[in-house]
Amino acid sequence: MMTAERRLPVLVCVCLFLLWSVQSCGKKGDPRPPDVAPPSAISDLRATLIESGVYLRWSIPDAQGGIQNFKIQRNEQDKEMSSCVDCPREFMMIADVSVNDPALKKGEGNSVGYVDVQVKEGYYYAYQIISCDMGRHCSEASNIEEIKISTTVPRGREGVKNTDR
Predict the structure, then answer these.
(1) Burial of residue 82, with CB atoms counted within 10 A of its CB: 0-12 exposed, 13-18 middle, 19 or more buried
(2) What is d(CA 49, CA 149) in angstroms, rounded to the nearest whole number?
(3) How many angstroms separate the CA atoms of 65 and 137, rounded?
(4) Fewer beta carbons within 10 angstroms: which end of the chain, N or C?
(5) Phi, psi of 93 (to 5 degrees)
């Protein structure tokens, strides 16, 4: 059995531990310094059916920190589009490409492109892209570009629908 002299230091230590463990570090917020603006969102994402898959094309937005990479996201729906129509789309990242990555095709001006070859015939796809600068500050998601992969040979932008945010 503990004496009162020994209980007091133990009780103080327990109280200090509890106070230390429940304290917070203040207001939670954006970890980005307030004077650093994220890159602008991409607004001209376009998808084109090509024989090897879906060719995505967009313009690199201007950013003070310089664009470092692009996070390419895709939503896939089956042939019957049986997923919930009114539910928000769940986008999965299919690629995180650096501006110097050979998978990123340079176009005219400041446009770039990427080919998604992991598509299936008869499925519906929606794409969006997020750009990130050298400080790892990322933009909002781009416009959403929807496309259906038909069972026939693809021709240009046939089956493509653009959904601006």
Answers:
(1) exposed
(2) 7
(3) 9
(4) N
(5) -75, 125
Stretch (H or E) spanning 14: helix 4-22
Say if residues 57 and 112 touch (Cβ distance below 8 Å): yes
Measured CA to CA, the distance from residue 60 to residue 40 in angstroms comes to: 9
User: Is residue 67 helix, strand or coil?
Assistant: strand
Across all residues in the chain, what is the average pLDDT? Answer: 82
What digits encode the pLDDT tens for the residues 66-112? 899 999 999 998 766 555 667 778 999 999 999 999 999 998 888 99
Give the DSSP per-residue string, 20-59: HHH---S----SS-TT-PPPPPP---EEEEETTEEEEEEE
How far apart are the two ends of the chain, measured CA to CA in Å? 69
Contact 71, 130 (CB under 8 A): yes
118-to-14, 52, 94, 144, 165 alpha-carbon distances in Å: 56, 9, 9, 18, 25
145 neighbors 47 (Cβ within 8 angstroms): yes
